[in-house]
Amino acid sequence: MATFAPEEEIGPQAAPVAEGLAEEPGVPPCTPLAMVALALIVSGGAYLASNIPHRVPLGPAWALLGCALGTMVLNALLLARAGGFAFRRFFTVFRWGLLAYVVSAGMIEYVFVYDGVRGSTLIVLSGMLVVFALTVPFSIAFTVARYAHAGD
Amino acid sequence: MAQAVESVGGVPQTRGQAFERPRVPATIIPLAGLPIVVAVIGGMIAAIATNTLWALDFYHVVGGGLWTAIDLFVGLVIGPIMGSLPTAARAAFSARFMPKMSLIMPTLVTMTLGAGWQLARHLGNLQAGGAKHGWLVASYAVVGVMAVIALGLLEPANIAVLFEMRKERPDPAVIERLMRRFIYTAGITGLMQVATLIIMTRLATI
């Protein structure tokens, strides 16, 4: 019969760890970094949305997008270097998550185009949507895979 | 030696012994709920496409009200109750609760934000310099914080619990840890929703 592990086997893992945000030793800080990337693009999106339909200086939006992209790349590099990680499970979840969030980002992109957003503003918004569509599935896949067996 | 320490529904639970796994959902996402989600989202798309004021208001108010109430209820009522339950009871509750939440919450958020944006556009509140624009920007900030918490912490925890439940030998420590993350983040977004309530009622009465 399928059972839960006995509580003796749980060990120190059962202790509260800052409500699950802090990673254990050896686990890359992918969740906090993904949240930083999300915060950067959400800030950029709010900055642009609060000024639509007027033209706004795009410098801050480009800077936020650049920082978000940098954080995302750093996150991917840290994960790629992690040993004993369940990469197969990670990519299985990531693929399905990506499908869902590409559809979601596509709908948001359509709304911006439908509302008449064009030119550089559209490019920077599209970049933010790309980061959004990659970061959320990354975060979901990481959270699932970090509790899977390395071979999974 | 195993020792009876708690009782759940009259069934003594023991420390130091494996216990029976709760009913495992057949799929990660409850497929039976998908037609309802499709119908709700389809209705929202129709409301946006036809720009019907009543329908937009309905979707925004109903979605926002339920989103707020569920966040507050989960964070401030269910959370403390869960914290006081034995592990087996928490796992059994999670096995039934989390699949449903994985459909309900994204649907409510999409309803609220999609209809809300179009409603603001329809009423002219998106125009910078308008009387209500400042309050709208404040709502972007609140929703932004909630989005980062929900997408970065809450949703991954929700999905990861469902994967853990499907393992041959789920680890209750992992489920507890993820559930704790889920409950706390739902509580935080619930409290953020109080700010949203203040902003939205202010917007409606300016």
SSE blueprint and pairings:
The complex is a heterodimer of chains A (152) and B (206).
Chain A: H1 30-49, H2 59-80, H3 87-114, H4 119-145
Chain B: E1 3-8, E2 11-15, H1 34-50, H2 53-83, H3 87-122, H4 133-165, H5 172-205
Antiparallel strand pairs in B: 1-2
Structure keywords:
heterodimer; A: 152 residues; mainly alpha; 0% strand; elongated; disordered N terminus; B: 206 residues; two-stranded antiparallel sheet; 2 strands; 73% helix
Task: Describe what you observe in this structure.
The complex is a heterodimer of chains A (152) and B (206). Chain A has one domain (29-145). Chain A has four helices and no strands. In chain A, 64% of the residues lie in helices and 0% in strands. The longest helix of chain A is centred in the middle third of the chain and has 28 residues, at 87-114. Chain B is mainly α and 206 residues long. Chain B has helices at residues 34-50, 53-83, 87-122, 133-165, 172-205, and strands spanning 3-8, 11-15. In chain B, helix 2 (53-83) packs antiparallel against helix 3 (87-122). Chain B is elongated, with a radius of gyration of 20 Å. Chains A and B meet through helix 1 and helix 4 of A and helix 3, helix 4 and helix 5 of B.
